[in-house]
Amino acid sequence: MNLAKQHLDIGLFSTKRDEQLAFWQQTVGLPYDHMGKLGGGMQQHRHHMNGSILKMNHSRHPLPEAPPSGIAGLQIAKEGLATAQALSGPDGNKVTLVPRSADGVQGIAILLKVNDPAQHDRFWTEAMQFERVGDGRYRCGASLIVIAERGKVERSPEWRGPGYRYMTVQVWDCLAEYDGILARGGTSGGAPRVLGDTVRFAFVCDPDGNHIEISQRASLTGGQL
Questions:
Q1: Would 98 be classed as within a structural domain?
Q2: Do the Cβ atoms of 202 and 193 come closer than 8 Å?
Q3: Has residue 196 got a pLDDT over 90?
Q4: Is 3 part of a structural domain of the chain?
């Protein structure tokens, strides 16, 4: 995969704007970047996270009821930290601040609960072409995907529910990467589309239906969409 950025991003949805912003900025300590309008009463509040972006998508309207996604938690490396610090966000999102380089976490690690670790191993190494760096551990640039536990993950047709819902990988060519992932055994979660002159993006799904955004962002690629 031809990455335009060496860091994965992660997105969540919530109706609790003020509580979420206070948690991520004051409790977790993430610098605020900016807010973008997504339409339909949705605003995206972006926060910096060791080169990654935390996307807090606030909905003015009630979110659809949906079972939890397979994204079970997030680890964020922090300089000067002696021991790990476990936190829980307003909607129960699990976050752990960890000493930098602990368990190989240089930037962030996205923790997954999965139905079948073998299916995920094939998906992350073959379809997504991430590097396997340990048992159930896959590297994308400076970010990690970690199979943290095995358990029942319920696939849902509605992915814009409360909590962690998707991750984003930034690439140079959205169309080429999307087609390549499907050719290597991935499944589509949403055909490619363009948002103004900002980004071309598509979605693929992992074996448990978690959405992965394949994003070609003009500010990173410097080219036409």
A1: yes
A2: yes
A3: no
A4: no
Single pTM value for the model: 0.95
d(CA 101, CA 123): 25
Q: Which residues pair with 145 in a beta bridge?
A: 110, 138
Q: Rounded CA gap, 195 and 119, in Å?
A: 32
Which range of residues forms the domain containing residue 35?
9-221
Contact in structure between 192 and 36 (CB atoms under 8 Å): no
The number of folded domains in the chain is 1
What was the pLDDT predicted at 158?
81
> What pLDDT, in 10s, does the model give residues 92-109?
999 999 999 899 999 999
What are 214's two structure tokens?
């394949």
Name every residue whose Cβ is closer than 8 Å to that of residue 190 and which is 6 or more positions away in sequence: 202, 203, 211
DSSP 160-201: --SEEEEEEEEBS-HHHHHHHHHHTT-EEEEEEEEETTTEEE
Residue among 177, 166, 89 at smallest CA distance from 129: 177
